[in-house]
Amino acid sequence: MRTALLIVAVLTLSPFSAMAEETVRIIEPWARASVLASRPGAAYLTIESARDDRLLSVESPVADRVMIHATENNDDVNRMVHFDALDLPAGKSVVLAPGGTHLMLMGLKERLIEGARVPVTLRFERAGEVTITVPVLGIGARGPTEDIQ
Ligand SMILES: [Cu+2]
């Protein structure tokens, strides 16, 4: 009995399960409320990785597919470009924000409603999978700290 308890304690304190997530930090994730479920949703966040890594794919139960997009501006026309992966140089903040790189939630199962919280799983080449909860802000929101609504 005492041996069994000790093993449980050791497993709980084991740093191995938490180690993967600590190499990447996800800062201030948020999504913008969507007008219609038929339109794709957008989510934004800042990623910091302690070592060189790459964001390989993103999934969410609320969308059929989550794509990594960049926004290119040519002659005042914004165009979205799909990335297969996103490079995360060690120690550098990679910012996904309106008008720039973003996560596009394609095929929403339902409209993203302000106040909802959406699970999103990010898969990194080295850090593995990290699941975060993304709050949905208003349709006109610019970010978690400067919501203009
Ligand atoms: Cu997009």
UniProtKB/TrEMBL annotation:
Query: Which domain of life does this protein belong to?
Result: Bacteria
Key word Signal present in the record? yes
Keyword Signal: yes or no? yes
Q: Which UniProt keywords apply?
A: Signal
Signal peptide: which range, if any? 1-20
SUPFAM superfamilies xref list: DR1885-like metal-binding protein
Q: Which InterPro entries does the entry link to? A: LpqE-like, Lxx211020-like, PCuAC_sf
Report the PANTHER family cross-referenced here: BLR7088 PROTEIN, COPPER CHAPERONE PCU(A)C
Instruction: Report what the protein is called.
Output: Copper chaperone PCu(A)C
Source organism: Thalassospira profundimaris
